Task: inverse folding
């Protein structure tokens, strides 16, 4: 907040910019939370999967 | 016939030279491979393993690093994650503890934590073991600690063939592989097939067949174990000697096949006894082959002291053939 106030006081950022950033960030967080809450839990059977590479699953690296 | 002739051609070389040949071969075969570590370039490696490689491959691929194990091991892990195939050399396992954060918290975990989006296919080589009077900060055998960690593979080449052949196989692995080279093996000389190359890195090997007792070992202790087996044979005891080769994963099937045959087992491990790799092997035998056993399983490990500097104390701290012979005889009721 102090940094934001300093930027605004020095005319380096405007309130419109701050409002736009905040609404974009809020939307992104809401989307991520909705995605996570709509998901399913990882099956316990896959507990140890990807401790090592799985030959059956391609891995780029 | 020509192939048979080629196969029988051998070259006399040391273990050190076999590792160097493996490095040279890997550098030639894959341009993504590079070596980095303390003194690997100008100095030629603290154990002279990389001697001459700087002149051959240049400073871009044979990279001297600052004395910062965590820094350059982390750089190696990062390079591996974005497509390179680094070989990181750590001078000794004692010094590797400075890089343990990178190895355990990043290299070993990144695939699982990222849901397979990232992997760290690098090879970390280091010296381990005692016997050169380098005292307690350069002589320990901590490979058993590394074998505790899911997400990495741990190798202990004991022969020229494995010193020459394990590196390339390890570099093909999509996950991090640590190779432990016992310091007492670097000067070991022998004959290596001229066409020696890639070997498997997931199977134990029977280095001597026997029917009376299984002596299970790896790395520098393998040769002491074979020496003990020879002495036991002179007294009519035929010991089977198993070289674990891979400490993680352990080749349970080979261990159990041997123990089911001999019904007795001694594990020889240069690590300290408490919480040792030997304890892990012992417990797996109990879990999987208990009903085959005719005698309690024995262990020959290092004494529980920081490895001392004076030669007579250093020798007394380590597994030695007479201790292995005594343990084998005790298991056979011949003490």
Result:
């Amino acid at each position: 907040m102090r940094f934001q106030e300093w930027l605004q006081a020095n005319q380096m950022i405007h309130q419109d910019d701050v409002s736009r950033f905040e609404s974009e960030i809020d939307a992104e967080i809401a989307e991520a939370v909705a995605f996570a809450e709509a998901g399913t839990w990882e099956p316990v059977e896959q507990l140890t999967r990807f401790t090592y590479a799985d030959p059956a699953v391609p891995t780029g690296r | 016939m020509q192939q048979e002739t080629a196969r029988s051609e051998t070259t006399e070389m040391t273990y050190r030279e076999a590792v160097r040949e493996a490095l040279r071969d890997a550098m030639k075969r894959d341009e993504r491979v590079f070596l980095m570590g303390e003194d690997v370039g100008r100095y030629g490696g603290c154990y002279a393993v990389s001697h001459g490689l700087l002149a051959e491959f240049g400073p871009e691929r044979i990279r001297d690093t600052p004395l910062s194990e965590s820094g350059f091991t982390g750089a190696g892990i990062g390079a591996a994650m974005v497509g390179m195939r680094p070989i990181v050399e750590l001078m000794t396992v004692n010094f590797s503890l400075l890089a343990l954060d990178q190895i355990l918290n990043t290299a070993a975990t990144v695939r699982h934590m990222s849901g397979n989006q990232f992997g760290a296919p690098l090879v970390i080589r280091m010296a381990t073991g005692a016997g050169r009077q380098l005292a307690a900060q350069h002589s320990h055998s901590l490979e058993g600690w590394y074998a505790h960690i899911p997400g990495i593979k741990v190798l202990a080449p004991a022969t020229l063939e494995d010193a020459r052949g394990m590196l390339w196989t390890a570099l093909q692995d999509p996950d991090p592989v640590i190779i432990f080279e016992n310091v007492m093996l670097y000067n070991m000389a022998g004959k290596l097939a001229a066409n020696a190359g890639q070997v498997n890195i997931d199977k134990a090997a029977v280095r001597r067949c026997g029917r009376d007792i299984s002596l299970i070992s790896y790395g520098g202790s393998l040769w002491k174990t074979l020496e003990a087996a020879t002495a036991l044979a002179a007294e009519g005891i035929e010991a089977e000697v198993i070289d674990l080769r891979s400490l993680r994963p352990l080749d349970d099937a080979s261990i159990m096949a041997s123990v089911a045959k001999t019904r007795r087992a001694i594990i020889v491990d240069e690590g300290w006894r408490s919480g040792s790799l030997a304890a892990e092997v012992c417990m797996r035998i109990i879990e999987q082959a208990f009903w085959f056993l005719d005698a309690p399983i024995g262990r020959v490990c290092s004494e529980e002291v920081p490895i001392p500097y004076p030669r007579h104390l250093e020798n007394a701290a380590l597994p030695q053939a007479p201790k292995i012979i005594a343990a084998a005889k005790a298991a056979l009721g011949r003490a």
Remarks:
- The two ends of chain B are 51 Å apart (CA to CA).
- Chain B has two domains: 2-193, 205-331.
